[in-house]
From TrEMBL:
Keywords: Membrane, Transmembrane, Transmembrane helix
Family indicated by similarity: Belongs to the HesA/MoeB/ThiF family.
Name of this chain's protein: UBA/THIF-type NAD/FAD binding protein
SUPFAM superfamilies given in the database record: Activating enzymes of the ubiquitin-like proteins
Residue stretches spanning the membrane: 24-45
GO terms for cellular component: cytosol
Entries under PANTHER family matching the protein: ADENYLYLTRANSFERASE AND SULFURTRANSFERASE MOCS3, UBIQUITIN-ACTIVATING ENZYME E1
Domain THIF-type NAD/FAD binding fold positions: 4-227
One Pfam family here: ThiF
A GO molecular-function annotation: thiosulfate-cyanide sulfurtransferase activity
Length: 235
């Protein structure tokens, strides 16, 4: 507990114990994932699962600092190495593959899913699975100086928020490391708050623009035509 002396006054020993028993799955160990993994592991969660099928490339290191020295290595395995160095008390499981319909069942073993992938397809697969299985999902995305975060706890969900999606995100999204830092930190705060039963960005999309330094929240509701929410009993 000594290692967490500076945060225990905020959440109590009981809160810390809750964190130490919790399991979080981080999907994507890229720019957002690097930040989310760093702060979740520092805060002493019990177990972290890391999903990523990509390999570390030189141009990733500008924002994916947890992979320093690991160019050429799988990102999930590289992140696992980082976690073991940062906080050996945290159990870590690496899933060195890309998430799809056939392997998403791994998410059932976790209390919260943090969505940090680089494409819409994975976000939708995650959203639908989490809504169906009542697993809270913390969504984050960035573009250039801009970012957004929302937390899906049942309904409304990520699919309710966006009625259409482009086929494919750009191969190289322009971005600064600090944009990932802001969005990833907010995702981490949301995750910790979900685990502790605190109020989160449910039905609220937080958007920010670091060029104008504007932060604002947009409220959204359940879309009656949402494919993911349709079969849910409660709203
Ligand atoms: Zn929905």
């Amino acid at each position: 507990m000594d290692g967490y002396a500076r945060q225990i006054p905020l959440i109590g020993e009981e809160g810390q114990e809750k964190l130490m028993k919790s399991r979080v799955l981080v999907v994507g160990a890229g720019g957002l994932g690097s930040v989310v993994i760093t702060y979740l592991v520092s805060a002493g969660i019990g177990k972290i699962g890391i999903v990523d099928g990509d390999v570390v490339e030189e141009h990733n290191l500008q924002r994916q600092f947890i992979h320093a020295g690991n160019v050429g290595k799988n990102k999930a395995l590289s992140a696992m190495e980082f976690v073991e160095r940062l906080n050996p008390d945290v159990e870590v499981e690496a899933y060195p593959f890309n998430l799809n319909e056939s392997n998403i069942a791994i998410a059932k073993h976790y209390d919260v899913v943090v969505a940090c992938p680089d494409n819409f397809e994975t976000r939708l697969i995650l959203n639908d699975f989490c809504v169906r299985n009542d697993i809270p999902m913390v969504h984050g995305a960035i573009y250039g100086f801009e970012g957004e975060v929302t937390t899906v706890v049942g309904s409304p969900c990520y699919r309710c928020l966006y009625s259409s999606f482009p086929k494919q995100e750009e191969r190289f999204t322009p971005v600064f490391g600090f944009t990932c830092g802001v969005a990833g930190s907010i995702q981490c705060a949301e995750t910790i708050k979900v685990l502790l039963g605190m109020e989160v960005l449910r039905g609220k999309l937080l958007r920010f623009d670091l060029r104008s330094m504007e932060f604002f929240t947009i409220e959204y509701e359940r879309n009656p035509n949402c494919l993911a929410c349709k079969n849910r009993k409660e709203g």
